[in-house]
Write a structure and sequence with these properties.
Layout (H helix, E strand, L loop, with lengths): L3 H15 L8 H8 L3 H13 L3 E4 L5 E4 L8 H9 L26 H19 L2 H13 L15
Antiparallel strand pairs: 1-2
Length: about 160
């Protein structure tokens, strides 16, 4: 599950994407739109700026705008910056691998094997979702061309 920092970060990026023609967007306006503390949002935006996902302009007319990746920024990159590893366990991580202290036989661990599969599928899915995709889906949802997906309950035998 994504933490609040990541969720607000994605929503802030979407806000900047929606208002890209405005140039820089003041942090107060983003904070108000997302109903999140300005101080918390500034920390999130600082992390995103450090990675080039947003650019900042200081001064009276300052604020933020999307960085170089623009609308091609994918969720996998945002999640890694704001959340850390995408894997459920450190032994299943590609970039942040660490052996699990509990595992007696890491070279034959079925749990690690299963969770590497989950990690790979998750990363693949998150890489396919860009800010442009999210804006497109948002438009389709608002116009009624698409219905919001809802989680389906798990039933034995599926």
């Amino acid at each position: 599950m994504l933490n609040r920092k990541t969720t607000y970060g994605i929503h802030a990026l979407l806000h900047l994407a929606r208002h890209s023609e405005d140039g820089v967007v003041p942090v107060a306006r983003i904070s108000e739109a997302l109903q999140v503390s300005r101080k918390f949002l500034e920390r999130i935006l600082a992390d995103l700026r450090h990675e080039g996902m947003v650019e900042s302009q200081s001064g009276r007319d300052g604020g933020y705008r999307l960085g170089a990746p623009g609308l091609d920024l994918c969720l996998a990159d945002v999640v890694r910056v704001l959340e850390g590893p995408i894997a459920l366990l450190p032994c299943a991580s590609h970039r942040f691998y660490a052996p699990c202290a509990e595992c007696q036989t890491p070279e034959t661990c079925a749990l690690q094997d299963a969770l590497v599969g989950v990690r790979n599928a998750t990363v693949h899915s998150l890489k396919q979702i860009t800010l442009a995709n999210l804006l497109e889906t948002e438009g389709a949802l608002h116009s009624g061309q698409k219905s919001l997906l809802r989680p389906t309950p798990y039933h034995e035998g599926q």
